[in-house]
Amino acid sequence: MSDGTLFTDLKERKLIRTIVPRGLVRSLKLDVKLADPSDAQQLYEKEFPLRKYPTFVGPHDEWTLTEAMAIDYYLIHLSSDKEAVRQLLGPEGDFKTRADILRWESLSNSDFLNEVCEVFFPLIGVKPYNATEFKAARENVDTIVSLYEKRLKKQQYLVCDDHETLADLISAAAFSLGFISFFDETWRSKHPEVTRWFNRVIKSRFFEGEFESFKMCETEMQPIK
In terms of domains, do 30 and 120 share one? Predict the structure, then answer.
């Protein structure tokens, strides 16, 4: 019997928060079905009235889960690969490491990604361009990026120097939106540590099927005014 169904944007694959859970299902060989909401519209709308994803439905539709970080955590614990669980979440009982992983997950999945979206949306016309708001969002992105650059000058990955954790996966997924739109060649030359880290992390086995054809922008996109 399947361990459940992960609803994700299989058809367009544009939503950042769906990248990591899809990769986890594939790389950890989980017995979890990947489904687009359009393939089970009635169930999806009944169980998830906010219509946001990723979302997860357990066996026999008896249990549901929302919020990407919670779903990632649950999916990892479905794996029988104990070494992968330890690598991604930190050693059991090592609360300092686990808290540090959670800290970077939360920063990237909330404050950072929200600010990147505030820059990205005016670039594609989803949100009207407002010069003051756009400038503030860029400055907030720069401030958060500086925290990553500082950490990555000291070590290869965000928490553990010798391997990626869930913190790196969630952070890299969030950074990918910037790298396709306004983290251009000039920006990358000024942020070498973040750029090296990103290029390393997207090659992780846990991103199976997600970044094979990824291309960074050469020049920064401009707002649609």
Answer: no
Q: Token digits for 195?
A: 């750029």
Reported residue count of the chain is 225
Clarify whether residues 61 and 144 are in a common domain: no
CB 30 within 8 A of CB 71: no
Instruction: Tell whether pTM > 0.85.
Output: yes
Provide the b/e sequence for 179-188 (b: ≥16 CB within 10 Å): bebbbbeebb
The residue segments making up the domain with residue 42 are 4-80
Shared domain for 171 and 125, answered yes or no, is yes
Phi, psi (5° rounding) for residue 9? -80, 75
Residue 211 one-letter amino acid: F
Instruction: Give the model confidence (pLDDT) of 28-59 as tens digits.
Output: 999 999 988 777 666 666 666 666 789 998 98
Task: Answer whether residue 15 is part of any domain.
Answer: yes
